[in-house]
Every structure is written in structure tokens, then in C-alpha cells.
Write the C-alpha cells for this entry.
Amino acid sequence: MRLLNPLLALLVLYCLGAGRAGAADLVQTIAAIKPAIVGVGSYQAMRSPAVSFVGTGFVVGDGLTVVTNAHVVAAASGEERKDSKDNLRVLVARGANVEAREAALLVMDRLHDLALLRLSGAPEPALRVGDSDSAREGQMLAFTGFPLTAILGFHPVTHRAMISAITVVATPAPNARSLDAKAIVQLQRSAYPVFQLDGTAYPGFSGSPLYDPESGVVLGVINKVLNATKESAISAPSGITYAIPAKFVQQLMTGR
């Protein structure tokens, strides 16, 4: 039997040990993260069920501020339906029960697909928003939220993901004819970096925090997946997910 080179053997043992340590860190981090993960939805007294669950959010700051996606708030508030405006609700776990708490929209950033909500009542456990400019391609992260929303029950689910690329997106022009000089300048101004991830996010994960597995510090917000059709997001997911860097959350929180 051929023995491994001593240095190679030590390297293998180190990598195995690092892998176990990383997994242990994530186990502890998930336990700390979950109390700050909330659902975002709406309430209509005459609807059955009265509370509709749309996406994910997470608590930051003083425990009464919730971060989510702008498109989640638009769906929850009935913005897309001219005949109805729903009341926003934030769903908070209370042991085996779920409490639907009133929430108000503080500010919305449609360009970066972010929104801040204000919770009523007592503060909840909060996550820390970190420096997303420190994130690097190849870095392993995790995100926790509610895939498929209420279908799986009110149980936060965690997926791991690597930053595959840090790329730039811009709001596209409606058509080629509108691409004049002014439109091109506007496109350049609206371009911003996003994290492309190799983890799979399903509908309902929108608004989930993307965080460091060891520290739990939030580095981004899940906002969309790459899919050919809406239906394929469930039946044939691409495994390519995008997240908004946390620096835009910080800008929203500080009003910059």
C-alpha cells in the first residue's frame, strides 16, 4: 500500500478539518439567524385565508426595521392590482404559531429592488448588515428564507451558495428605438454590481439575507433567479441566483 506524501496527508487532514469546522459554524449561525427571518405578505379581512404570504424579509437595526425586495412589497400591497390595495403584514414565528404583525412601508428603492418596512409592536432579533465591498468571487455564503412560501409551512430553509461572479446589471431600455444618447447615459447611471450565485433559490426566497456562514453578517439580499419561464423556476431551476449587495441596504437605512 502506497502512503501519501506527509505534506499532502497533512493538507488533506487540514482541509477535512476546515470543512467540518465550517459546517459546525453554519449550524450555529443558522440557529442565530432564524429568529430574525420573517415572512412578508398582506391582509384582507374578506379573503380566505385572510393573510397572504408573498416573500421573505429579515430584521435589522433596532429590531423594528425589516429589509425585503421592492417587488415583494409591490406584490404584497396589491400595487399591481388597481382594484385592490392590501394591508402589509410581516409574519413572525411565535414557537409553533405565526403572528401576522402590522407593517408600514418606510422607503422603497426600485432601482436596487429593495424596501424597508417598519414593524409595529416589540422589537425582534436583528441581523447585522456588513461591508459587501469585501465580498470576493469564490467566497462561500448562505441564505435563509421561505422557498415556495406557505407550501412548505412557516419554516425557514437555508441554502449554501458561492459567489460565482460579481457582475453589473442595468435597467434595460423598452426597445432599441429608445436608445438615444440620453437613454444610454441613463443606462450607464443605473448600472450597479450584483452577486451571481451558484445556489438555487425558489420563489419565496426573494428578500432573504445572504450572509457569511461563520459570522452571520449580511452581505446581500436575494432578489431573483435566472429562468427561461416563471414555471421553470420550480420545475427546472437554473441554479443561477442573483443578490443585491448589502451596501445598498446600508444606503437605504442611512438615507444616502
